[in-house]
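Morning!

This is the sequence you dropped in the shared folder:
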Amino acid sequence: MSERDGYAPGVPCWIDTWQADADAAVAFYVGLFGWEVEDTMPPDVPGKHFMCTLRGRDIAAVASRPEAAPAVSSWGTYVWVESAEETAAKAVDAGGDVIMHPFESLDGGRITVIGDPAGAAIGAWQPGTHKGAQLVNEPGAWSMSLLSTPDTEGALSFYRAVFGWTTEAFGSDFTMFRLPGFMGGEPQQPVPRDVVAVMTAADGQANWSVDFWTKDADATAETAKQLGGSVVAGPFDTPVGRTAVLADPEGAVFSVSTVAAAT
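The structure's back. Tokens below.
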């Protein structure tokens, strides 16, 4: 059930991180998750673009930071859309802005990076030949993206207008973004299968982060420290299992979770 071959419009479909030292970053994640990697950057293009795989299936990318990108290492989430240009226009109409105007991706598709009203950046990807993550929701793979924001009401309105997401409270600290009619996730997961992302209220700069499943969040946190990363928070118990918030050697924040089955 964790294998994918494309996504529906409005569904997060891909993640990547742009780093000053892509070689060092990919070595960290290979050590942490056991990924296999291949540099897929065309020979006439400067920098590196590592396609990361598990069991032969694409799960994420680690790349050199483009000149136009913010000089901060982070994990980015991309939502499948039918038109990058139309999504950029919707973002502006909904009170956000366009951080990176639509451009050609390596697979022949189109990408834009938009900002919500509180400044959180998220990508919109009009795919070409590449159809997003081929493996999700298993140890070592991406499972969910989280929006931390001081403006939850503004986020509700923005993401509804741009991607068609609805919301539902989850526990006392989280809100689930849902896409009506979408059937994803896994049968045993402890949230509805049309959940596409999660939001929590937080002070400071709004941002999107990503979560990877792991067999043992505590052990993964220890391994991250040994590989030159750091533990930002936890490990701690959550409504879905056990989670640790980590950072890689360049400071890109992500989380790892050991998820309990639904009861």
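Headline: The first strand starts at residue 12 and ends at 19.

More detail when I'm at my desk.
O.
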